[in-house]
Amino acid sequence: MQTIPTFIYSMINCKCLLSSGDTGESVSPPKIASSPTSSTVREYNSASFRCKAEGLPIPVITWYRNGSSLIVRDRHTAQPNNTLLLRNVTFSDHGTYTCLASSVLGNDSVSAILTVQVPVKITQGPKSTAIEGSDLRLICAATGQPKPSISWERLGSTLDTKRLIVDGATFILKSSKVSDSGTYSCRAENLINFETASGSVVVVPKLHFTVSPPQNVTIFAVETSVVVTWSRSNGPQLTARHRTLANGSLVIEKASLADQSTYICTARNFLASLNFRVGVNIYFPSSCSEIKRAGFSERKMYLISPKGLTPFAVHCDMRDKNGIGVTVFGTLVSGFENPGT
């Protein structure tokens, strides 16, 4: 058998002579023989691209979308005849598809465009409330491919084109009037279908005064409440034992000779004040019986002043003795029932 001569892979159209003298197949770089064609399909339909390549060794076909390698699985499948099948296409599938044929001798590629048409769908219809004199603004938002065109109308009336500005999905009516209230409709349309939507528009009258108030008003503030306070005309200031009640009364708790004085009651309001003097004399009972008649029943030490003498402390036994309080002179000794014993 004749030895096959060594050849370089980069050689093109190299022919090998077999031992029988026959000429073998020629090696050649990849070449696209049948190119995929661009197509337009509607959303959720199927699309396919066929790509046939020649060359020896047999080229490997790889698919790309928008320059990135396409993962062939799920909705995207490669058929045995080098056809790429796309099922249930969505708008995300649109773009440029490239067929790349490659082998050790090189590569060849060709591209085709897939256009996905999407029906029109209005996602926001016209509806608004405006104040008289302000600009009335309406929005008609719609999706679809090709991009839908938007048209406007007012049901039952014509539009005032002199005040109207339309910029695609935006409708602006300058200096709105109450008479602009009504039903407005928009129509979104592309090559596949169209949709309409309508909504109510209310223009509220601008507020205004039927009777205008004066620009400046003077109000005289009159304080009607009266505040009552107490003070002493001389001597020490009032302490926590001296309490002024809500009705203006003065209460002296645990009164002593030190509280004997002239007290001043002052009443004030927003416009004026009034003073009134009250003399307070501290009186000491002459006996325990007098203390008991005054309503005191506790057995303890009290100050008494019999016949105007200097007050001194005694123990008063307030147990019932025919209504008489017993005055005991002396000292209460612990352990004895009767004081002074």
TrEMBL record:
The keyword Magnesium does not apply. One of its GO terms (cellular component) is plasma membrane. Keywords: Cell membrane, Disulfide bond, Extracellular matrix, Glycoprotein, Immunoglobulin domain, Membrane, Repeat, Secreted, Signal. Residues 30-115, 119-202, 228-281 form the Ig-like domain. Its main location: membrane. It is found in: Cell membrane; Secreted, Extracellular space, Extracellular matrix. PROSITE patterns: FIBRINOGEN_C_2, IG_LIKE. Residues 279-341 form the Fibrinogen C-terminal domain. Coiled coil: none annotated. This is Ig-like domain-containing protein. It comes from Pocillopora damicornis (Cauliflower coral).
